[in-house]
């Protein structure tokens, strides 16, 4: 591109500002780790907001991050521009005045870029189609990149682990305070609302996901939603919830018995099987194991007890900026556990017409095995 054309594009269509340092995390180290896996890729477009937050410190609902010649160009609209000026770490910040695609194309022309790689992981098909069509119309070559920023995010730094651990501790405090509101006749929705209120009082920005709060037979639905179902004597009470604070999530599942009914003898046995499977997994899973091998540790305990067909999901998953991240501990996947992964261990047994038991702890993968982050016990408790 002729220098005069480049200057004209810059003057008339681009507003670029340089942001300052954000010392909340080591963003330079994160960016350097990304550069190491880029290989020969010189120009990369990232659209997943969790990845952009991880690399820059900007938390928004939409953004574009262009990596070119080892520099970061962050495109953001007016809703988040001032926030980006304050929080985005050492980026070239561009104001999106019309559409993101227009700003991207103008920037590519300014930088004289003829070809671009787009990170396909996590991008919506509709967004990819829109971006692709706009780039093709501007005669810019497109490749889809298999680069997985999720693999970088899976290895947590000390600051991330501290936040997640604090969020989990606050979640457990909220749970303990919510137990006082359990009484016969209260609904699942009422207890879920009380729990979420307590999470906010403990400093949560929002819930990590839609709270799962189930009574009685409904606890056999692994991802059932709270209803107007009323608590009655003998019910199982299943809490599965988490807190999101500073962008990071916690995740915990606990089960209580509200007295004893005709199913208590069997379901208390099931409870202890699930607890043994969880404890066995935390004791025996180690760094370097595949997700299949890790899952098998807990699954073997449940299968030997005769309940294998009722364990209908994987053992756990990574947690961080998203509630479900790499690695995923599943019998059908082959992720490998690495040091500083933060994962859940959550075996479960679900029996229709009786109820479900799932116990979930969060752990860190270390060179010496798994380290449990939870402080609340998982002893069988009858309220």
What does the secondary structure layout of this molecule look like, with pairings?
Elements: H1 3-13, E1 16-18, H2 27-38, E2 43-46, H3 49-56, E3 64-68, E4 71-77, H4 81-87, E5 92-96, H5 100-110, E6 115-119, H6 125-137, E7 141-145, H7 149-153, H8 158-178, H9 188-201, E8 206-207, E9 212-215, E10 235-241, E11 243-245, E12 248-249, E13 252-258, H10 264-284, H11 291-304, E14 316-318, E15 325-329, E16 342-345, E17 348-351, E18 355-358, E19 361-366, E20 369-372
Parallel strand pairs: 2-6, 4-5, 6-7
Antiparallel strand pairs: 1-5, 2-3, 3-4, 8-11, 9-10, 10-13, 11-12, 14-15, 16-19, 17-18, 19-20
Please provide a written account of the structure.
This protein is of the alpha+beta class and 383 residues long. It is built from 11 helices and 20 strands. The strands form 6 sheets. The chain has a 7-stranded mixed sheet with strand order 1-5-4-3-2-6-7, sandwiched between helices. The chain has a 3-stranded antiparallel sheet with strand order 8-11-12, covered by helices on one side. Strands 9-10-13 form a 3-stranded antiparallel sheet, with helices on one face. Strand 17 and strand 18 form a beta hairpin. The termini are far apart.
